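dude i think i finally got it to work??
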Amino acid sequence: SCIAFSGKAVVSTQSTGSGELELGYISIVKKIKNTATYFAEELYKSMKGLGTDDDQLIRIIVWRSEIDLVEIKGAFQSLYGKSLREYIKEDTSGDFKNLLLTIVK
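look at this
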């Protein structure tokens, strides 16, 4: 299989034999093509299911807060039908929740 970017194959993953390597390539291309969607998906993954990946959640929110968090919030809403704030309210608690909600506004 190939990973395409703007109609051109970026890399062929047939010869690698590694599913993890292929996922890595796909993540890179997704991030390049649409950064806001990529980070919205990563935020969702950090909160879905039982437990929260607090490190991933805070890393993305703090890192992207002054860059493109507004776009990420919009992509999150479009992808999951709920705001990032709503997910944070439901999935976190205490001072951690208050800190995240202050940053996300």
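The CA atoms of residues 76 and 82 lie 7 Å apart.
im so relieved honestly
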